[in-house]
Amino acid sequence: DNRSKNTRTKSGTIKRRGSDTYWIIGVGGNVVDDDGNPFKKLFSAPLRWNVRPYPTRLTVERSLKNSFSLESAFNFNTYKPIKIINNEVGRAGIFLSLDVNLKNSIGRDGFFNPYIVYGAGGTFRTVRIIPIGGNLNIGFGFNLWFSHSFGINFQSIAKFAVSTRFPRSSGNYLQHST
Q1: Are 117 and 105 in contact (CB under 8 A)?
Q2: Cα–Cα distance between 103 and 68 in angstroms, integer?
């Protein structure tokens, strides 16, 4: 019976014939821009971007129907006292986030796969008075596939703190990942 045989998809993942779903596991890094002005001076990296030198992001993604996929992402980072954090310098701390995002592919399968991402999550930041908070996410990204089973992902997400000052809270920040 041909229906029970496994086949390879364009991305190289193995799936059952007749199925449009597959899994993607990702390990990478992230950058946190939490300077208190998330949409100003976007490329002032030396003063505002917090980056760790080793893998700090783990993702698990499941494809769904009609060019959608569901992503779960865990991120770790640290705040350095030489960086601007919510319009202040001299604060150090830990950053953790856990997000569940829906991705909508806007391109065709192939080498370059752009998408829009939106979802929700929670963030733990020791540099804030209330360290735990929820956020709503919106952003964009793309995958570059170098083979059937290896690719690189680039993504930028604006994270809006769920608070009484939504959407203009000081808890808003940007997160970039690869």
Answers
A1: no
A2: 6
